[in-house]
């Protein structure tokens, strides 16, 4: 599973880069609620990516040892997304709801872009 860990580390770097851009946008623009929503959603998305990577590694180890595993943690990832949306709905003047939803999808977009980059990089 070293390639899974390397993929996770690479994607985590991309998300940290995006988070730093969002923090700069929050600090230096007048669109603070939008960038704060992006920071909140992307942070939750990063946590969900970490959970998914950890559960996938546990799943791989369980399959290799012939054991069973209950799930890949879909409920906990959904709960995190609901929590982020709840925070945005509780403080609509501070956190932009649509930005939170876009931020929650960030890790999936990063996964797809990373997949295409790695696919085209390996072909060359």
Instruction: Estimate the global geometry from the Cα principal axes.
Output: flat
**What's the number of helices?**
5
Beta-strand residue percentage? under 5%
Number of domains: 1
Portion of residues within helices: over 70%
Decide which structural class fits the backbone. mainly alpha
Q: Write down how many β-strands occur, each being a DSSP E stretch of 2 or more residues.
A: 0
Largest sheet: none
**What distance lies between the first and last C-alpha atoms, to the nearest angstrom?**
24 Å
SSE string: HHHHH
Q: What's the alpha carbon Rg, rounded to whole Å?
A: 17 Å
Mean pLDDT: 92
Describe the structure using short key phrases.
124 residues, membrane, transmembrane helix
Write structural notes for this entry.
This protein starts with a helix and ends with a helix. With 124 residues, the chain is mostly helical. It has one domain. It is built from 5 helices and no strands. Helix 1 crosses helix 5, helix 2 packs antiparallel against helix 3 and helix 3 runs antiparallel to helix 4.
Short summary of the structure?
The protein has helices at 2-28, 32-65, 74-90, 97-104, 106-123.
SSE topology:
Layout: H1 2-28, H2 32-65, H3 74-90, H4 97-104, H5 106-123
Helix pairs in contact: 1-2, 1-5, 2-3, 2-4, 3-4
């Amino acid at each position: 599973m070293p390639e899974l860990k390397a993929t996770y580390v690479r994607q985590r770097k991309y998300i940290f880069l995006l988070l730093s851009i969002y923090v700069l946008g929050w600090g230096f623009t007048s669109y603070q609620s939008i960038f704060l929503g992006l920071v909140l959603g992307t942070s939750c998305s990063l946590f969900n990516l970490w959970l998914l990577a950890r559960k996938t590694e546990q799943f791989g180890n369980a399959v290799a040892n012939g054991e069973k595993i209950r799930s890949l943690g879909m409920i906990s990832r959904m709960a995190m997304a609901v929590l982020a949306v709840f925070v945005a709905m509780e403080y609509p003047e501070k956190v932009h709801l649509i930005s939170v939803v876009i931020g929650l999808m960030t890790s999936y977009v990063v996964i797809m872009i990373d997949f295409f980059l790695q696919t085209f990089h390996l072909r060359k």
